[in-house]
Amino acid sequence: MDNPTYSPKARATEKKTTYTKFADFLRKYRVIILVAFGVAMLALIGVAVGTIISEAALKSATAGMEKLDADYAAYEAEQDQAKKAELEKALTASADSAITQWKGRFASLRALSYKARIGESKKDWSEAEKNWLAIVESAPKSYLAPVALGAAARAAEEQNAADRALADYRKLVEKYADKAIGMPHAYFSIGRLAEGAKDYAAATIAYQKIVSTWPDSDWTKLATDRILFLKSHGLSK
């Protein structure tokens, strides 16, 4: 004998009850459901638009960087001083625009490096130092950061700011020892500047670092000579 609970009529009634409950649920929470759906759609649209904008920004930054490269090459090659001044003015304006427009992107870092190099070519070491340090501050983890920090240290030295230069070189070897080339030179500069400050112990440590870590470096002989000099004059143990 069939169980009435599972008769076709009972199943139809149960199905109707389920639909009714579902319909009631939709009516009761329709606002919340619509809001949630709307938020989800907006999120999807945001991702799509963000991707499009990001790709467009990348293309724009790349095109801008290529123009900067060409403008700097023209500036560097120009021999006529009047024309060079005009090219510098235009290049500086383009670089400033790139720094603002593509902040944080490689194009802005390249623009800062060109402004720094213009400063170096004019022996405006303060301007060069400022722009090199701006690269380090803007993108401390980029491969340009240690290069810029070393250049900033040299610019500081040109201004006879030995304390700033020494601080930059120390920061260079502490933060970027495993990422930058030229570490023996950086340590030798630390030793040289420490000697100038009469901190002979720090100078000796820097020179010994070169000898122990880079025995085949061109800077090793110079470092060895300085160690011998300091010891022979009773300035180092």
Q: What's the arrangement of secondary structure elements?
A:
Elements: H1 8-28, H2 30-77, H3 81-101, H4 106-121, H5 125-138, H6 144-158, H7 162-175, H8 183-196, H9 200-213, H10 218-232
Structure report:
With 237 residues, this protein is an all-alpha fold. Among the domains are: 57-160; 181-237, no CATH class. The chain is 81% helix and 0% strand. The protein is built from ten helices and no strands. The protein has helices at residues 8-28, 30-77, 81-101, 106-121, 125-138, 144-158, 162-175, 183-196, 200-213, 218-232. Helix 2 (30-77) packs parallel to helix 4 and helix 7 runs antiparallel to helix 8 (183-196).
Secondary-structure element series: HHHHHHHHHH
Decide which structural class fits the backbone.
mainly alpha
Helix content: over 70%
Largest sheet data? none
Unreliable runs: 42-53
How many strands? Answer: 0
> What is the C-alpha radius of gyration, as a whole number of Å?
33 Å
Please tell me what the overall shape is: flat
Query: How many angstroms does the end-to-end distance come to?
Result: 108 Å
Query: Helical element count?
Result: 10
Q: Round the mean pLDDT to the nearest integer and report it.
A: 81
Strand content: under 5%
Top keywords for this entry?
237 residues; 10 helices; flat; mainly alpha
Write a compact overview of the structure shown.
This protein is 81% helix and 0% strand. It has helices spanning 8-28, 30-77, 81-101, 106-121, 125-138, 144-158, 162-175, 183-196, 200-213, 218-232. Helix 2 (30-77) packs antiparallel against helix 3 (81-101) and helix 8 (183-196) packs parallel to helix 10.
